[in-house]
Recover the amino acids of this structure.
C-alpha cells in the first residue's frame, strides 16, 4: 500500500514572512499532533525555497518546487535547474501544471523532458494532467488524459500523477466522488498499459478545489493516494484539516 501524500501548491502567493509563518504553523501543529503515515509537501514560490529549506529541514514537512527547466545548466535566462532545487533541500517538483501549460504554452513533450531531468536530479516529479471544461463538455476527457499520460510521462517514470481537472481548479467546484473514482480508474488502467506492473503502484492524486469540507470524501476513494491542494493550502487550519482527513490505510 502506498503512502498517502498531501501536497500544498502555494502558486504565486505570499511574501517571505507570510510563507515562513505558514510553514511554521504547519510544522508546529504536526510536531504536536503527528499525522503518522502521511507525507506532507509544501511548494512555495522559487524565491522562498532558500528561506524555507532550513526551516523545514528535519521536520515532517518536505519542500517542493512548482517547476524546473529540462536542462541542468546553461543559457536559459530566468529558468531554474533541477540541481538548483535539490541544492536548497527541495525533494519534489510539480510539473506540467495546467497553469504552466496555459501561461507558458508547455506541451506534453516539454513536461516529459522536465520530468526526465527532475528524476535524474533525484527529485520526485508530481506530473499534472487534466481536461478543460471544453474537453469535458465534448466528451474528450479520456482521450485528453490518455494523450497527456502517453506524452508527459517518460519511460521508467518514478513519480506521482496528479489528476487536476482544469475546470475544478480555483472554482470551488471539485469533481464529484463518482467522477473522480471513474477517472482515476481510467488513469490507473492507462498507467498499467504504459508501464506494466510498475503502473500499478504509481500514486495518483486528485487536485481541484479540495478544501477542509470535501477532503475526507475525496481522500476516502480507494485509489486516490492524496491531494494536490491550491487555495486551501494557503490557510494552515484548512491544510491541516485536509492532512488529518487522510484515512488510515
Ligand atoms: P485549488 O485547490 O485552488 O483549486 O488549486 C488546485 C491546484 O491547481 C493545485 O495544483
Amino acid at each position: 500500500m502506498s503512502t498517502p501524500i498531501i501536497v500544498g501548491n502555494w502558486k504565486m502567493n505570499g511574501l517571505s514572512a507570510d510563507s515562513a509563518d505558514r510553514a511554521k504553523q504547519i510544522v508546529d501543529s504536526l510536531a504536536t499532533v503527528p499525522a503518522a503515515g502521511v507525507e506532507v509537501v509544501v511548494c512555495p514560490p522559487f524565491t522562498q525555497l532558500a528561506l524555507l529549506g532550513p526551516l523545514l529541514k528535519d521536520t515532517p514537512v518536505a519542500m517542493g518546487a512548482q517547476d524546473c527547466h529540462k536542462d541542468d545548466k546553461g543559457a536559459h535566462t530566468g529558468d531554474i535547474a533541477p540541481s538548483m532545487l535539490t541544492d536548497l533541500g527541495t525533494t519534489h517538483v510539480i510539473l506540467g501544471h495546467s497553469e504552466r501549460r496555459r501561461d507558458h504554452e508547455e506541451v506534453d513533450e516539454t513536461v516529459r523532458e522536465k520530468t526526465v531531468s527532475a528524476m535524474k536530479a533525484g527529485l520526485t516529479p508530481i506530473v499534472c494532467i487534466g481536461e478543460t471544461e471544453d474537453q469535458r463538455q465534448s466528451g474528450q476527457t479520456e482521450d485528453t488524459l490518455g494523450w497527456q499520460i502517453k506524452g508527459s510521462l517518460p519511460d521508467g517514470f518514478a513519480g506521482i500523477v496528479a489528476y487536476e481537472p482544469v475546470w475544478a481548479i480555483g472554482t470551488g467546484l471539485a469533481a464529484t466522488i463518482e467522477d473522480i473514482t471513474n477517472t482515476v480508474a481510467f488513469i490507473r488502467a492507462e498507467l498499467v498499459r504504459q508501464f506494466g506492473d510498475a503502473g500499478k503502484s504509481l500514486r495518483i492524486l486528485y487536485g481541484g478545489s479540495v478544501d477542509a469540507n470535501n477532503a475526507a470524501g475525496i481522500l476516502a476513494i480507494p485509489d486516490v493516494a492524496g491531494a494536490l491542494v491550491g487555495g486551501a493550502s494557503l490557510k494552515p487550519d484548512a491544510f491541516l484539516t485536509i492532512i488529518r482527513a487522510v484515512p488510515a490505510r
